[in-house]
Write a structure and sequence with these properties.
The chain has 274 residues and is an alpha+beta fold. It has one domain: Sandwich (Jelly Rolls). Helices cover 19% and strands 20% of the residues. The protein has six helices and 14 strands. The strands form four sheets. The chain has a six-stranded antiparallel sheet. It has a four-stranded antiparallel sheet with strand order 4-11-6-9, with no helix packed on it. The chain is globular and about 45 Å long. Bound molecules: 2-oxoglutaric acid (AKG). 2-oxoglutaric acid binds at residues 110, 118-119, 124, 152, 207-209, 221, 223, 261.
Length: 274
Amino acid sequence: MTTTSTTGLAPGELATWHRDGFHVERGLFAAGEIDAVRERFDALAARGESIPGHWTLDPDADDLLGRYPRVMQPHDVDPASLSLLLEPRLQRILTTLMGEDVVACQSMYYFKPPGARGQAFHQDNYYLRVEPLTCVAAWIAVDRSHPDNGGLQVCPGTHTMAVDCPEEADPTTSIAREYVAPPPGHDPVKLELEPGDVLFFTGSVVHGSNPNLTDDEWRRSFICHYLPASATHIAQYYLPHMYDFAGNRVAREAAVGGGPCGTEHDVAMADGRH
Ligand SMILES: O=C(O)CCC(=O)C(=O)O
C-alpha cells in the first residue's frame, strides 16, 4: 500500500524527483473539481469574446487556435482560477519538492482541440528567468492526456542542465517559436495522465508536446508556475501576476529578458497567411 505523509508524497517519490526532475501526482483533484474547471473555460469559449491582455481571438484564422488560443493569466480575472493556482494541495507538494515555500507567478489554460498544434520542446526558465534557483510548474490534466492527443512529454534528468539557447521551432507543429533538442541519453517520456493528475517539473526540464492527432479528443490543461520564495528575480512580465499562498500580492526584482512561457508564432504563420 502507498502511504502519503504530511509532505504530500509517498515514500521514495522525493528521491525520484531529485533523480528525474519531475513528479506525477495521480488523482490530486477529484473528477467534480476538474469538471468545474473544464465547464468554466468551455463557457468562455462559447461566449467567444476576447479578454484584452488574457485571451486574444482571431476567429477568421484557418488555424483552430485562432478560436481556441491559450488563456494567459486567467487568475487575474477569474477568482476560481486564482483559488486553483493557490490550492493548498499544490502548495504542500510544491513546498516538499522545492524544499522551501513557493510563490505563484503564472496560470494558463490550453484547450488543445483535435488537430491543434503542440508546443516544441523547451525549458520554462528560458522565459521565467527565475534567479538564483529556478521555477517549477504544476501541469493539471483536465482531459485524458496521452501521446495521440498531444500529451506532455518530459526528458528525465534534464533538470540539471543549464538553460539552453533555443533553435527555431516548426510553426506548423508548434505554437511557440523556441525548440530545445532533447539531449542524448535523455529520451522523452510520453506521459499518460488522467483528469485530476498533476505533473510537477522544474524550469530546466526539457519538455513539450506534439499536435493533437485525434479526430475527437480535446486535451485541455490548466498550467501553473511558481518560484521559490527565496528567488530574488523573475522576468518583468510576471511581476503583476504574483501571489503568495495566503493570497497576498508579492514582488521581486525584474530579471533581464524573458516573457510569457513560449513566444507564440502568429496564428497567420500556421495557417499560411504571411
Ligand atoms: O501543454 C502543452 O502542450 C505545453 C505546455 C508547456 O510546455 C508549458 O506550459 O511549458
